[in-house]
Amino acid sequence: MAVLRRPFARARRLAREMLWECGVDEPSKIDPFVIVGRRRIYVIYGKLDGATAQILRHGERAIIRVSDQIVQIGRLRFTIAHEVAHYLLGHRIPSKLDVGATSPFTAHQEREADVFATEFLMPEAWVLPLCVGV
């Protein structure tokens, strides 16, 4: 019998570890801004063409620049979790914003960050029981 290996296991595991580290024991406590605070990541808002957010390094610090055009809280939370994932997963983060440039991340890294954000915001262990019989 073949064993199916789920892709992006590292991102899923790291998301669950971050939930534990942040003391999340129920869905109402899930908040990507807790990670931002714990890791001392700055979040700034402003005009950002062609992207919803970007992350950069400034010395040892990470700064997430978020588009001020995001109006939905769910989109904002996913965006923050996605950018934090690049940082936590050890992706090479540029040291300056290159306005109008393409993403410095590979397609695999972008998907890995999406998987982290999804697992962090909607942990499979809590969501799957709600899907039974649907």
Radius of gyration from the CA trace? 16 Å
Order of helices and strands: HHEEEHHH
Task: Outline the biggest β-sheet.
Answer: 3 strands, mixed
CATH architecture: Orthogonal Bundle
Percentage of residues in strands: 5-15%
Count of discrete domains? 1
Calculate the terminal CA-CA distance, rounded to whole Å.
Answer: 28 Å
Question: How would you describe this protein?
Answer:
With 134 residues, the chain is an alpha+beta fold. It has a single domain, classed as Orthogonal Bundle (Arc Repressor Mutant, subunit A). Helix content is 44%, strand content 13%. The chain has 5 helices and 3 strands, in the order H-H-E-E-E-H-H-H. It has helices at 9-21, 32-38, 73-88, 107-121, 124-131, and strands at residues 42-46, 53-58, 61-67. Strands 1-3-2 form a 3-stranded mixed β-sheet, covered by helices on one side. Strand 2 (53-58) and strand 3 (61-67) form a beta hairpin. The longest helix is centred in the middle third of the chain and has 16 residues, at 73-88. It is globular and about 45 Å long. The model has no long low-confidence stretch (mean pLDDT 89).
